[in-house]
Amino acid sequence: MQQLKIVTSTNSYPVFVGGGAIHLLYEFIQKEADNYTSVMVITDETVAKLHLDSFQKSAGLSRIIVKIVPSGEQAKTFPVYYDCLSAALENKLDRKSLIISFGGGAVGDLAGFVAATYMRGIRFIQVPTTILAHDSAVGGKVAVNHPLGKNMIGAFHQPEAVIYDLDYLKTLPEREVRSGFAEVIKHSLISDETFYDRLREQIYSLDAITETEMLDFLTTGISIKGSFVAKDEKEKGIRAFLNFGHTLGHAIEAEAGYGKVTHGEAVACGMLFALGLSKELLGLEFHLEGFQLWLKKLGYKTSIPEGLDRERLIEKMKQDKKSVGGTIRYVLLEKIGKPVLMEIDEKTLTAYLKKFEEEVGHDD
């Protein structure tokens, strides 16, 4: 079991990571028992079926309100968000109530946004159940999707704690493991060449990652994210570096249809694109072909999905949260561990997107 601390300008909170960590939830809540009038758990259909009964027993929570929402990105829609607010009102949650997010990144984003906006903000705790959520559960960015852009409707709302029980990862399907591990790779590229080299040397198959290695990778990733968030909670500067690979990645998700391509699959393609762009524009010294081959060995599709229109992808990238006045700002690397935020004109981006499609081709 490891404990980390996230410090921001608005809140500081613990992150507990390890097998069996869920047992710490009861103790954490009991410390504040007199301050919580009610507890509402928001989870999704898949997690509820697999873990809700054991979660309630392990967490020692008997009197809770449970709201079950659709799985995956379908949870992050306006109708589901509205339904959660209705459930909170019907069950008379007040400003001293607590929301617990129990699930992956989508549930965490949704539940956090419900907590951020219900009665202008109530407390919540993140209990992530996926690898992907090691990134999204920390830092306080909460949101729902819009057809015109991913995570465009949201808020900054820090949790009271993150309880990350790695035992929940044992039931993840292979595709979700792959999706989450893309964020681990991202953290290494933007922060630490030694960490990146360690991943390349140790990981040849996602099935072969040991529990010890997983604990190491996830706590390292959380620490890296925490360091960016501590310096820039509201993403006015360097926190944008955490979006490496996400500009094209989010565009792919939106154009393909949310849930058709996993977040990690889209980000893996986005990182490959951003690395190539970094070589073109900044002279990054990086073995791009070797990186692409490694991603493929891990099971990632590294090309843009067939049928996605180049001009529409560009338009989606222009709507990215980092863009200002329609000017695309892209996270690139001068070298591993040294990201920069760079304005790129549409003509340059379109030309390289065409080149990328031609060189990378389509995965089998």
From TrEMBL:
Keywords: Amino-acid biosynthesis, Aromatic amino acid biosynthesis, Cobalt, Cytoplasm, Lyase, Metal-binding, NAD, Nucleotide-binding, Zinc. Its EC number is 4.2.3.4. GO terms for molecular function: 3-dehydroquinate synthase activity; metal ion binding; nucleotide binding. It is found in: Cytoplasm. Binds 1 divalent metal cation per subunit. Can use either Co(2+) or Zn(2+). One of its GO terms (cellular component) is cytoplasm. Zn(2+) binds at residues 183, 246, 263. Its cofactor is Zn(2+); NAD(+); Co(2+). Gene3D superfamilies: 3.40.50.1970, Dehydroquinate synthase-like - alpha domain. Residues 68-178 form the 3-dehydroquinate synthase N-terminal domain. Pathway: Metabolic intermediate biosynthesis; chorismate biosynthesis; chorismate from D-erythrose 4-phosphate and phosphoenolpyruvate: step 2/7. Catalyzes the conversion of 3-deoxy-D-arabino-heptulosonate 7-phosphate (DAHP) to dehydroquinate (DHQ). Belongs to the sugar phosphate cyclases superfamily. Dehydroquinate synthase family. This is 3-dehydroquinate synthase. It comes from Mesobacillus subterraneus. The lineage of its organism: Bacteria, Bacillati, Bacillota, Bacilli, Bacillales.
